Amino acid sequence: MRENRYLAGRLLRKVAVLAIVLTQGSALVAQSNLVDPRSISPNVPAPWEVVDRMLALASVSPDDVVYDLGSGDGRILVRAAKKFGAHAVGLEINHELVVESKSAIQAAGVEQLAEVREQNIFDADLSPATVVTVYVLGSSYKQLKPKLALELRPGTRLVSYASLIPGWNPTKTETVSASGKEQKIYLYVLGQ
């Protein structure tokens, strides 16, 4: 119950920040400590139902190395490690979220399988990933797509929540009911 109130409060703060960004422009983003101006998307955690379905859709297993781009509060990292036994690496630019993720990883007891790095995704080497999860604004793919195409190996599974990758055809598309809404998840397999 306490966790639900905490998550609801965080979500409300993030929605408020997104509303400010959309109504008053990006100049306010640079002044806010809730949204990092280097970020390609505001941090809005995916619902748990979506997290589970993203990882299942990608057929995550203990043999996988899951990279979560913009890992936020670490929920995908924890779930990939704890439920699927995969090694999980989060890339997060926001220091407060890195601290929060590290706490979540420790609380879940998955420090041997999950880690978060305070790093801009554009400075990171994505080539070790066998699975990539991403939840960004659709317009962010213009920046991100060349990096994904260059660094991800053939056969890497990429799961995008809520946004299609322009010019790429998903291998599978699923709809998940979460938070009273239908949510889209797209699976891409590089080289297919």
Q: How is the topology of this model organized?
A:
Layout: H1 2-24, H2 26-31, H3 48-57, E1 65-69, H4 75-84, E2 87-92, H5 95-108, E3 114-118, E4 131-134, H6 141-151, E5 157-161, E6 172-178, E7 181-189
Helix pairs in contact: 3-4, 4-5
List keywords for this structure.
single chain; 192 residues; Rossmann fold; seven-stranded mixed β-sheet; 6 helices; globular
Tell me the β content.
Answer: 15-25%
Q: Provide the structure class.
A: alpha/beta
The main sheet orders its strands as: 3-2-1-4-5-7-6
Mean pLDDT: 83
The CATH topology of the largest domain is: Rossmann fold
Rounded Rg: 16 Å
The percentage helix is 25-40%
- Compute the number of helices: 6
Count of structural domains:
2
Low-confidence stretches: 2-36
| CATH architecture annotation name of the largest domain | 3-Layer(aba) Sandwich
What's the total count of β strands?
7
Task: Explain what this protein looks like in three dimensions.
The protein has 192 residues and is an alpha/beta fold. The protein has two domains: 35 residues; 154 residues, Rossmann fold, CATH 3.40.50.150. It has six helices and seven strands. The protein has a seven-stranded mixed sheet with strand order 3-2-1-4-5-7-6, with helices on one face. β4, α6 and β5 form a beta-alpha-beta unit. α3 packs across α4 and α4 packs parallel to α5. The longest helix is centred in the first third of the chain and has 23 residues. The chain is globular and about 40 Å long.
